[in-house]
Design goal:
Rossmann fold, homodimer, about 220 residues
């Protein structure tokens, strides 16, 4: 339908990956472990950053780069209050973060004070999966009220991530969510995926996530 | 950063709008009222189509075109079982429907048997807002567990729609959602927006939505 678009996007993605590789090298040199955190809008990305920063800030200082499609910097402000050094990126309507946005944002963070960097992507289950940012691990948050069919409907996102957090498990009694069906879909796409069922609201399950982070970033 | 992208995308959008205008003319000629239904993943798009088709199928036969990023045609199958003549579009990973996809899908529907057409877009609060499809009204579903900050964070989507459905109000007792704050954000972006608070799970609030549809499609 639009034959001109494909080569242009491919060129852009290849340029993006070069910038992502530079970012990775920079983070490695600083001894910073980094996450690309992706999810639907409202799945709990910022709540997870808050919980993580509060728990780890003394032992593993957290930096946060947050992408949103608008000027509203609520997420960066929430993370900052929780103890994470935070930078807000306005993507200007773009549906995902790109490596150059993250590179530029990192210039504003005192990297020598950070041990764990969380890059909170734009709320979107489709586009962010195509863009490398330079992070060490990609983390997807699924949310119970989104429904149990999401792995089947967003296979590219589910198959490309390193860690899955299943958030809002406190809502399981109030919605129709077949955990077996959900997990079967995940397992088919991404066998052996590291998974943490949690509630960022009640705190349930977060210890295992924090232990995993400590073991990776140590 | 990527200066070549903007003109290309503009050309594509303009071509898209021409196809959308053709679709609109075709629907008008058939006397079909049509909706472009947008929301985050899991906000309840298909549940709303099911409820709507079940309630209206005898008086206002429903057709449904569903865009998903994969081959999984669950949503089209659910809608078909609820009485809507349904077509599934695999966008091949694309994050939104485009007018040409809808035009081609409509060739597969017996339009003379349909009075109400619901186009269920890809679950995404960013990209679909930029692509006209030819529908008469754009409808956004917000979902209570997504949180009350979404209008502030996805202003382009909230400001561009004609109707807002606030779904999963049955979950209000179990989450932190300030309805006043949410509605203030909506009102600033889109004053006087027609709004229906509903629960597709319990059926609460759906009568007002169905009445509105009957009045528009009559």
């Amino acid at each position: 339908m639009n034959p001109i678009r494909i080569p242009v996007v491919e060129k852009v993605l290849s340029a993006n990956d070069s910038v992502a590789a530079e970012t990775r090298a920079r983070l490695d040199a600083q001894g910073i472990f980094s996450l690309n955190l992706m999810a639907s809008p409202g799945a709990g990305k910022t709540s997870l950053v808050e919980r993580t920063a509060r728990a780890l800030k003394d032992s593993l200082p957290v930096g946060m780069v947050n992408g949103d499609t608008s000027e509203a910097a609520f997420d960066a402000e929430r993370s900052q209050r929780a103890g994470a050094l935070s930078v807000h990126i306005n993507t200007g309507g773009k549906c995902h973060l790109e490596a150059a946005m993250v590179r530029d944002a990192l210039k504003l963070l005192p990297l020598e004070q950070i041990r764990l960097l969380i890059i909170e992507n734009v709320g979107n289950l489709v586009c962010p999966s195509a863009w490398q940012l330079g992070a060490h691990r990609s983390v997807l948050i699924a949310s119970i009220p989104e429904g149990d069919d999401k792995p089947y409907k967003y296979p590219k996102m589910y198959s490309g991530v390193d860690v899955l957090i299943i958030n809002k498990i406190d809502l399981l009694p109030y919605v129709d969510f077949r955990m077996d069906y959900f997990r079967r879909g995940v397992e088919t796409l991404n066998p052996g995926l590291i998974t943490f069922p949690v509630s960022c609201r009640t705190g349930e399950g977060l210890d295992a996530w924090l232990d995993w982070l400590r073991s990776r970033a140590a």
